[in-house]
Amino acid sequence: MSAVSNSNTAFALELFRTLSQTNPAGNIFVSPLSTSSALAMVYLGAKGDTAAQIAQVTFSTISPALFNNRASQALVITTELMFILPRIVQRYSSPFVEER
């Protein structure tokens, strides 16, 4: 999993560096993980020069197939946690009391 983290970190830092050059004093609001995930999906349908360019920019240290595999696993875990965590909080927290 560290290869995926390293690849995402390298991509994120390069993305932020590139975006900050355009407006050095401005704020940057972007999700590098979402961007690299979208590029991974586009890569699966790309061919030729386009596929090579996406792979060069996004997957400098790992294969696109490995990235897609790990990203899919992370998405499944995140989705499951979104449904489980509220139930845990509800079960183990104090009940809300309405003020009158």
Automatic annotation (TrEMBL):
Output the Pfam families linked to this UniProt entry. Serpin
Q: Where found, per UniProt?
A: Cytoplasm
What Gene3D superfamilies would the database entry show?
A: Antithrombin, subunit I, domain 2 (3.30.497.10)
Residue ranges spanning the membrane: these are: none
Q: What is its main location?
A: cytoplasm
* Sorted UniProt keywords: Cytoplasm, Protease inhibitor, Serine protease inhibitor
An example molecular function term from Gene Ontology annotations = serine-type endopeptidase inhibitor activity
Q: Taking every annotated instance into account, which residue ranges of this chain make up the domain Serpin?
A: 7-58
Q: Would I find Cytoplasm among this entry's keywords?
A: yes
Q: Does the keyword Cytoplasm apply?
A: yes
Q: Which GO terms describe its cellular component?
A: cytoplasm; extracellular space
Top-level lineage group: Eukaryota
Protein name in the entry: Serpin domain-containing protein
Species the sequence originates in: Neolamprologus brichardi (Fairy cichlid)
